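can u do me a favor
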């Protein structure tokens, strides 16, 4: 049996590795995906979960949407739109739980963005 952190780590690694395999090294897509993986936890802490997710979702950038899809699969096993809807409709206790789980998963996305995609914190999106 694995802990939730181990499951998040494995799923996030697979998602980031898969994204990296589909996009050439030093591409703007890899940089955008990785940069948002570094920024999203800060956005969640500053603005709140649903506001941060909607901000990223409405920007309409494919790498950002790919990160949201991957995050939603890791945390809830559903699409980004379904995950956003679940967060929006959650009661306070469930919303707080979803926020904690999202932040836990995002820690792994940040680590793998740096180690797998070679995107450092503070990388500028192209």
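np, heres the sequence
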């Amino acid at each position: 049996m694995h802990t939730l952190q181990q499951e998040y780590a494995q799923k996030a690694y697979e998602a980031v590795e898969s994204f990296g395999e589909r996009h050439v090294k030093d591409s703007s897509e890899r940089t955008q995906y990785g940069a948002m993986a570094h920024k999203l936890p800060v956005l969640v802490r500053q603005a709140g979960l649903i506001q941060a997710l909607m901000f990223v979702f409405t920007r309409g950038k494919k790498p950002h949407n790919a990160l949201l899809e991957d995050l939603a699969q890791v945390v809830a096993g559903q699409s980004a739109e379904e995950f956003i809807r679940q967060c929006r409709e959650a009661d306070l206790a469930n919303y707080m739980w979803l926020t904690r789980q999202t932040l836990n998963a995002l820690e792994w996305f940040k680590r793998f963005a740096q180690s797998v995609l070679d995107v450092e914190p503070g990388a500028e999106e192209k």
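DSSP finds six helices and no strands in the chain. hope that helps!!
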